[in-house]
Amino acid sequence: MKKFFTTCLRDCYDTCLIETIYDRKEIRDIRGFEKHPITSGFLCPKGNKLLKYLNHPTRIKQPMAGEFLNWKNVTWEEAIKKVVDAINKNPDKIGFYSYYGSSGLISKNYPERFFRKLEAIGFESAICDRNGQEVLKKMNYDAFQIYPEDIEKHNLAIIWGGNPKWSSLHHWFLILKHNLKIIGIDVIKTVSLKDSYQILRPKPSTDWFVAYAISRILIEEDLVDKDYIKENVEDYEFIKEWILENISIEEAVEKSGVTYEQMKKFISNLYKFKPAYFYIGYGIQRQRNGGEIVRAIATLAALTGSKIFFSRMVKNKKASDYLKGTNLGKLKKYNQMLFPDVIEKGKIKVLFVFNANPVSTSPNSNRVKEALLKEDVFVVVSDIFFTDTAKLANVILPASTFFEYFDIAKSYFHNYIQINQKVIEPLFESKSNYEQFGLLAKAMGFKDDSFYETEEEIAEKYLSFYNLSFKELKEKGFLEIPQRERKRGKIKFKIKLNNAPETPFYEEEKAPEGYLRLISPVHRDLTSSQYFKITTNFLPDRAFLNSMEAKKYKIRSGEKIRVYNERGRAEMIAEVKNEVPPGVLLIYKAPWESITGYSPNLFTEDKPHPIYKGSQFHSTFVKIEKILKE
Ligand code: SF4
To answer: Residue 229's pLDDT is what?
Structure first.
């Protein structure tokens, strides 16, 4: 029997370190590695099913080439030749779309060396947490103030627009383990809210009013944390004046539905249980007012001397440049939200998709499909499964699971770098990204050393930028990343971002008459579109709505409805749940529409935010109608 260190490389905050048990030529078991300081001892229910990836009957087993549903098996040599020929025909129109399908540092970044050498088109991250990141950076906010180890120093977690019980189980576990009280603030009554000491449920997109109205009460009643402000805030007088001039508590109550008494209670709970921290979820910033809502929450946090948790990953520019091979050439970068637009404009003729399933995860999926199906675009997809994106490829390359390749990884929750040892040789004819792009580089005749370093050499050099030892990582499985001194100044409330006003602002956003706001959070059994093939509890075809809406539309649970807007339509089963507020239709993201027949991304808004440049998934409006039996 042999034990290996594996790191769960799904797109998840927790980045668990796993102990993989290998015996008699097979992987026998996986379990959370007990000595890991944060993810010790257990995996989430999805993680417990990771071995199902290995021999899943629908895994892509060998390279294929052809057209939609008419592919032929080809050898790796033939597949590589087809790809190289396509590149040589269109050397100036190469593009790639890659995301967190594998969060391994090598599998995610080594391929970029290939595309830099080609000076290809790439897409900068926008669909996930961009709006929040942009605003927090401008506020000089250390977006990752809270480390998991700091949770126990707090008595109160204010979970605002997040659902860690489903999406970051180890964070949730630490909150419970250290007996923190929870104030849950969300439009949806999520499972995380159900355990809260106080619950606030603002109407959709009105959190901005709640955060500033509470801030106004704090200022008026002289309850702001003066010591913290003096020490950590640059322009308190500016925000004080702005709030007093612009924020009306009556208006906030009317818009949000959160009462004055609830706001007062929030303040008294916060001070009763201080120190508190604000956990700001990703979903809340994926809307028209998302960036400004994060700004409002971060303002409230600063006024109460509280820290925030948003997303954190220690970065080292030199290490990152080395990994991506920035010495090899420049990429032409576009906003990720503009992916179909760039193809429609004819800028890409050979498109690579790996570590990603944009047909399921990008907004306006019909437009994405049309772009990929353009006759003059040659699409190469590497994946473990026939995802909705892989099904539109001209060449399909079988990708390995992370039990079949070596990698290292960091987390956007904790501060450890981890190893992912190769446990078994790749099954079938699958290959890791490192192998695939190594083969392509060789076939293109690239001679640069960057393409011929081994994975272990890459890991060792990468770690050296952090003064960490690869030998030690191999022995221990994880190493703490040394913190660099942060050079950010004090928190600023007045910020300059693109053409936006420097002061906070809010754009009225009402559902057009007859429409519901579509909210598409992640389901417990998926992380974005990942795990779709191996989890079993995911409810297909369900669209959830409040009993008030159900009454209005004369719809009962279990009845068929049509959901539609100008971008798409689908037939679904209604389910009446008052966890969803009036005016909202909830459909969990991001199922594979080719299998379920629906996806919320058939409908979602696909314009990047004009200021913050991130996504606006939750600023989508749809109509519904009952489908009458024939
Ligand atoms: S999905 Fe997240 S919580 Fe689950 S095993 Fe993977 S890293 Fe851990």
So the answer is: 97
- Residue 537 has a pLDDT of 66
- pLDDT tens figures, 542-574: 999 999 999 999 999 999 999 999 999 999 999
CA of 530 to the centre of ligand 1 (A): 11
Q: Could you say which of 3.40.50.740, 3.90.1150.10, 3.30.70.1450, 1.20.1250.20 is the CATH number of the domain covering 64-127+315-480?
A: 3.40.50.740
Give the whole-angstrom CA distance, residue 128 versus residue 459. 27
Token pair for residue 450? 């960057």
Judge whether 579 and 190 are in contact, CB under 8 Å. Answer: yes
47 lines ligand 1 (CB under 6 A): yes
Distance 445 CA to ligand 1 centre (A): 39
Task: Answer whether 12 contacts ligand 1 (Cβ < 6 A).
Answer: yes
Please tell me the residue having the least CA distance from ligand 1 atom 8.
16
Decide: pTM greater than 0.90: yes
Give 194's pLDDT tier (boundaries 50, 70, 90). confident
**Is residue 251 scored above 80 in pLDDT?**
yes
Q: Give the 3-state secondary structure of residue 9.
A: coil
What is the CB neighbour count within 10 angstroms for residue 415? 20
- Is there an atom of ligand 1 within 6 Å of 534 CB? no
Fold of 516-626: Barwin-like endoglucanases (2.40.40)
13: which DSSP letter?
S
